[in-house]
Amino acid sequence: MNADLDTPVLDDHMHLDPVHGRGVEAAAEFADNGGTHLLVVNKPSWHLLDSLPSDADEFREVFDLTVGAVERATAELPGRAWPVLGVHPALVSQLVDDGRDPEEARDLMQTGLDAAAEYVADGPALALKSGRPHYDVSDAVWDASNDVMRHGFDLAAENGCAIQLHAEGGEDFSEVAEWAESRGLAPERVVKHYSGGRLRGITKSVISNKEDLTVAIEEDEPFMMETDYIDDPDRPGAVLGVKTVPRRVRWLLEEGHEEAVEQAHVDTPASVYGIDTEGTLE
Q: Within a domain: residue 56?
């Protein structure tokens, strides 16, 4: 058990960059400040490898780097880390700007998700990552992006795993929940990363500022906590620093929110991902 906080402390969405960033050093800092568990999401290939993917093997190169970073991070944690692998939805714009039409971009991104699903089926990855652009795009790009996301739901259902979404802001994702359910995926296993404190339809991974956490507690619904730490040497501490989740857990406990902490770090991770954050502590 975490001797300092007497609870598991999970950051539900963090990036580790073993090529350009701090990599395992960031995980060690998280652990030094009371963190116990991490879900590490692969960075886009144009950040990690400085190039756009063109086939499944180039997606796998990014996934392998992430899996390796997670293995090294786990050695630094009192609990463990898990990879979350997939395709960043902004890739569609990168590909279209590079000369592909939206349908070609869709097909390549679905190929990337197929490759990510292999890592779930074979064991190293815990969940998938997909979504749709959080910025204005053409109707054709929007439709292609929704096709990619729904393909992710198909794969998550087939592999019995959760899927994290990078998507636009907003509080009502009921339609997305319906799409997931129609494909055999329980909506609670669809996680909106960088969520505010209110969200309808799917599970929220709340960006860990005090305001949004306060709203999430008032809503009294399942949630998790994240930093979306980017591990970019040009943007240290972006989006939130690695110390943030442990610090916010301390604050929540000081405010008397023990049940909310258990919800975010034990109960919701168990129901969404099937992980035991208490049983995996040293």
A: yes
- Residue 81: CB atoms within 10 Å: 27
* CATH code for the domain of 64: 3.20.20.140
Name the token pair of 145: 């992006």
DSSP-derived secondary structure for 51-117: S---SHHHHHHHHHHHHHHHHHHHTTSSS-EEEEEE--TTHHHHHHHTT--HHHHHHHHHHHHHHHH
Amino acid in the structure at residue 199: L
Q: Which helix (H) or strand (E) holds 265?
A: none
Residues 6+ apart with CB under 8 A from 78: 2, 31, 36, 281, 282
Instruction: Write out the chain's pLDDT in tens, 282 residues.
Output: 455 788 999 999 999 999 999 999 999 999 999 999 999 999 999 999 999 999 999 999 999 999 999 999 999 999 999 999 999 999 999 999 999 999 999 999 999 999 999 999 999 999 999 999 999 999 999 999 999 999 999 999 999 999 999 999 999 999 999 999 999 999 999 999 999 999 999 999 999 999 999 999 999 999 999 999 999 988 888 899 999 999 999 999 999 999 999 999 999 999 999 999 999 997
Domain containing 30 equals 10-273
> Is residue 177 assigned to a domain?
yes
Q: How many domains does the chain have?
A: 1
- Flag whether 4 is in a domain: no
Axis-axis angle for helices 244-254, 210-219 (nearest 10): 50
Upstream peptide bond of 176 is cis (omega within 30 degrees of 0): no
Q: Is the peptide bond before 239 cis (omega within 30 degrees of 0)?
A: yes
Helix (H, G, I), strand (E, B) or coil at 43: coil
Q: Is residue 282 one of the residues assigned to a domain?
A: no
Residue 275 is which amino acid? I
Burial class (CB in 10 A: 0-12, 13-18, 19+), 282: exposed
Residue of 125, 130, 106, 158 lying closest to 40 (CA atoms): 125
